């Protein structure tokens, strides 16, 4: 497998505006194109105020069914405190509304100050869980997802992005 890290800090991504074409929104089209060409995507975010980070929300808002329908998506969230479960739940809901196929395995990294040292996860069980997320994303990338979510027919904002 080949991987590519999309660090949203390296892109110009203005606040989402439904009245602005994606092609006129900084690097939004570039990000969307990178997601479209991927066989699977792992979304990762720190948890802020019980949800995922606003740059990721903005990037997802500039995407739609063309980028995510039928796409295998893995989820990872980190937090300085307790388990970032709500961030994972919010990401799962957004991805399902875009008809992505979110794999059951997800990775949560709580208390990152103690869990990560010099860029390495120090707890072997936690490191295995994160590694398994990558393995599952590759394994599930070729599985045909079914069925569409019940919300997908009502998500008109994702059409034509």
Q: Which key terms come to mind for this protein?
A:
alpha/beta; 161 residues; Flavoprotein-like_sf; globular; two-stranded antiparallel sheet; NADPH-dependent FMN reductase; Rossmann fold
Describe the structure.
The protein is α/β, with parallel strands linked by helices and 161 residues long. It has six helices and six strands, in the order αββααβαβαββα. It has helices at residues 28-37, 54-61, 65-68, 85-97, 112-115, 124-140; strands at 40-48, 51-52, 72-78, 101-109, 116-117, 120-121. The strands form two sheets. The protein has a four-stranded mixed β-sheet, sandwiched between helices. β1 and β2 (51-52) form a beta hairpin. The longest helix is centred in the last third of the chain and has 17 residues, at 124-140. It is globular. The model has no long low-confidence stretch (mean pLDDT 90). Pfam families: FMN_red. Its cofactor is [4Fe-4S] cluster. GO terms for molecular function: FMN binding; oxidoreductase activity.
In short:
With about 160 residues, the protein is α/β, with parallel strands linked by helices. It is about 35% helix and about 20% strand.
